[in-house]
Design a protein that fits this description.
- The chain is an all-alpha fold.
- It has two domains: 9-59, Arc Repressor Mutant, subunit A, CATH 1.10.10.60; 63-154 and 186-231, Tetracycline Repressor, domain 2 (Orthogonal Bundle).
- The chain has 13 helices and no strands.
- Helix 1 crosses helix 2 (26-33), helix 4 packs across helix 6 (91-98) and helix 11 (189-207) runs parallel beside helix 13 (224-231).
- It is flat and about 60 Å long.
């Protein structure tokens, strides 16, 4: 019969990520690993812990942008793009992240690297931490919005159609503010993200006493907001 496969938490996490968090159960993961379900329970207590182990593994694999000597705004822009896309591509992992899947050991290690990289470009340690936090929170918020709108579209209730449905049910004189923006709701969320990220980075530059225009025009998107800021 041979010796049964040896498993550990790393192998379990990889199995869950290969199957997909939404499709993973104790039984499915055990079968994927070639072990019995009772054997899997020796390593994780339940499905909740199963997903947590996978999320920890996925988050640990996220890497800071390489420090190539690029301007601090480009380094932060790279991180914002990377983290937003990572969460959008793995919404189940994102859910576990919100539940505290990232260990404090990992948080401290990341912040140490962030402070060392940004202080080389004149940030104080506190300013480095705040700039990093601002970009990270913005990326998380943008990911949440993208996941929510994608889910609405997949369920047959896209945002624009729902807005028009609500407005059609109300008096033409009602909800005038919403009516004024319904036709300009963002259709390209990635371009919208780039525009708003450029605004955030420009604000950080302005507070540092640096010219903010190069931050907006270098490496930013082509959206109306970015163009308007650059034009003054």
């Amino acid at each position: 019969m041979g010796r049964p496969p040896r498993i550990d938490r790393e192998a379990i996490a990889d199995a869950v990520l290969e199957i997909g968090l939404s499709q993973s159960s104790m039984k499915a993961v055990a079968e994927h690993l070639g072990v019995s379900t009772p054997a899997l329970y020796h390593h994780v207590k339940n499905r909740k812990e199963l997903l947590l182990v996978a999320a920890e593994r996925s988050m640990a694999q996220m890497r800071l942008p390489e420090d190539r000597g690029q301007h601090w705004s480009e380094w932060l822009r790279e991180w914002g793009r990377y983290s937003r896309n990572a969460f959008i591509e793995e919404p189940e992992v994102f859910g576990q992240y919100l539940s505290g899947a990232v260990s404090w050991e990992r948080v401290v290690e990341v912040m140490d690297s962030v402070v060392r990289i940004l202080t080389r470009q004149g940030f104080t340690p506190v300013a480095a931490m705040r700039a990093w936090d601002a970009v990270g929170r913005f990326a998380v918020g943008s990911a949440v919005e993208s996941i929510r709108l994608r889910s609405a579209t997949e369920s047959g209730r896209p945002q624009v159609a729902e807005w028009h449905r609500v407005l059609a049910q109300r008096s033409p004189d009602d909800l005038s503010g919403a009516r004024s923006v319904v036709d300009v709701l963002p259709k390209d969320l990635e371009a919208e993200f780039e525009d708003e990220l450029a605004t955030l980075l420009a604000g950080i530059a302005a507070r540092r006493g640096e010219p903010w225009e190069p931050v907006v025009t270098t490496g930013a998107g082509d959206g109306a907001l970015t163009q308007g800021l650059a034009a003054g």
